[in-house]
Amino acid sequence: MTATLEHTGFTQQAFDDFLDARDEPNWLVDMRRAAWKQFGELPMPSGSDEEWMRTDIRLFKLDRYGLPGERDTEAATPTALLAEGVELGGHTRAVDSRTVDSDLSSELAKQGILYGSLGRLTAEHGDLLKPFFERRLVDPSYDKFAALNAACWSGGTLLYVPKGVKVQQPLHALSTITDGGVDLSRTLVILGEDAEATLLSESASSDQSHGGMHCGTIELIVGERARLRYVNLQNWGDRVWHFAHQMGDVAANANLQWTIGALGSRLAKVNQHVALTGQDAEAQVNGVMFTQGKQHLCYSTHQHHKAPFCRSDLLYKAALQDHSRTVWRGMIKVDEPAQRTDAYQRNDNLMLATTARADSIPGLEIEADDVRCTHGSTSGRVDETQVFYAMTRGYTRQEAVRMIVEGFFQQVFDRITIESVREALGEAIGQRVRDL
């Protein structure tokens, strides 16, 4: 046992007991043990690391948390915003990293689709899933949080769609945390060639005042000519620490539309990477962030072009009120073989208080010589002229500001093809807007 492990709530004995209680293939146990070794060797991130210099986690104490134990799985379930008014093909629900409810329509199951608890389905279909685990889209050595999830992920969600199967009905996943709980979920989505699916995933606390920790991973594998729409809404309570590594791999002629909604948590540090690995691959990344109180949300996005004739389009918008802060770091990386790349990234910030702060850091790293890559960023306050105009038409000041905020996000909402998702995000943001 290393000195690092002795000072955390994730002890060697707890990890050994965790493995003993699981029925998993030997190859997966070996992968967990290797990641656990890396977890023990890696230091906690600090302000001296460039990626973390704008995100201070000195108040975060890892030893307050530990591997998921027996929790109250009957705790009150928060409203699933993304599922309202949607006819679903299947759903899963997890509490503190334990899957407590899961179903998939018999029609979809007959087509060879796998959906539900990643842990259970890996035990049942280990030979099928092993190659996708071995791809390691998220490298456990990236940082201590990546290693922790690779070693100790629990429950999680798997969506596997075989070659040529098109899933018309959206699927839904909900993860919740009880007070002081830990969520170590892992999401793995695999679409075979010519497959198509939509997954709506959201996280929330059973009570917005509850604290806890989320340390998660998302891996999206989109096969050739496949199409994936993935919506991820982060709506934890305002005392939850949120750390996540998220990675998408898009093959030739495939399409990924990835929408992020970031509304909750005390502090969030998320790495969202998309790799375009096959010719003519396409990715659209949409981000909506709304912060209040003393929230701190840091999202680092990476559009990695590895093959020629690929397109990526990223648009992140954030509205901030009170003493909150957002940090967005964007990078477009174009490898030498990725000629004829067309890549775009933009981050817009709407400041709803003079005490809020938004850091926007776009970047380009281009090794090819025949590309079109652009980036931009804007920050500004609510136009008082627009507020005055709306108030002369009978709206209160708060209603006027709410309409302006909704209009600010409309460009992102217009990209979302699922009407219920647009309405859910708009309503969730609208409820948070206060009078200026």
UniProtKB/TrEMBL annotation:
The SUF system FeS cluster assembly SufBD core domain sits at 181-408
Which Pfam families is this protein grouped with? SUFBD_core, SufBD_N
Q: Which InterPro entries match?
A: Fe-S_cluster_assembly_SufBD, SUF_FeS_clus_asmbl_SufBD_core, SUF_FeS_clus_asmbl_SufBD_sf, SUF_FeS_clus_asmbl_SufD, SufBD_N
Which ranges carry the SUF system FeS cluster assembly SufBD N-terminal domain?
Answer: 25-171
Any one GO biological process = iron-sulfur cluster assembly
Q: Which domain of life is it from?
A: Bacteria
PANTHER family this protein is in? PROTEIN ABCI7, CHLOROPLASTIC
User: Into which family does the record put it?
Assistant: Belongs to the iron-sulfur cluster assembly SufBD family.
Write the protein's name: FeS cluster assembly protein SufB
Species the sequence originates in: Adhaeretor mobilis
